[in-house]
Specification:
10 strands; 14% helix; mainly beta; 4-stranded mixed β-sheet; 1 helix; 146 residues; Jelly Rolls
Length: 146
């Protein structure tokens, strides 16, 4: 019995070490609209090196307007519905997929208006801009669909 317990403890040791190193993805918030409204504002707190993830359901032909406001440089990206989110080796979100024109990782978008090409859930990521703050920074993300 003593050997069995020792064996079980050794067998579970790698699992405990693995669990300590696991970093979860940030929560993915769904942007919803109040009845009769086509505009929604989400508030967040951007931590250095962080990224917040949002989904919004949109239909082909709608016009989407996205803006972010913050005292520090914060930017967003808007991804097509077929984008996927996984965890990178460092624990940060790894997003695979195409962005909408002028709303990509190198655009440092703080305001964007564009036509929705097809029905689906569009991923919006918010992260620190090119010269991000070293302290947590509040921001607001506003999305409207017409």
């Amino acid at each position: 019995m003593k050997h069995l317990m020792a064996f079980a403890a050794l067998a579970l040791l790698p699992l405990a070490a693995l669990a300590q190193g696991v970093t979860t993805l940030p929560p993915m918030s769904v942007i919803t609209f109040n009845p009769g409204s086509n505009k929604s504002t989400m508030s967040g707190q951007m931590v250095p090196g962080g990224r917040d993830l949002y989904y919004v359901q949109a239909k082909a032909g709608q016009t989407m307007n996205v803006s972010v406001a913050s005292a520090a440089p914060v930017a967003f990206q808007v991804y097509h519905p077929d984008a996927t989110v996984a965890r990178a080796a460092d624990g940060s979100p790894l997003i695979t997929g195409k962005t909408l024109p002028d709303a990509g990782p190198n655009d440092n978008a703080q305001a964007w208006v564009g036509a929705i090409p097809r029905d689906g859930k569009y991923l919006i990521t918010v992260g620190a801009g090119a010269s991000g703050s070293a302290a947590p920074t509040p921001y607001s993300l506003t999305v409207s669909l017409q």
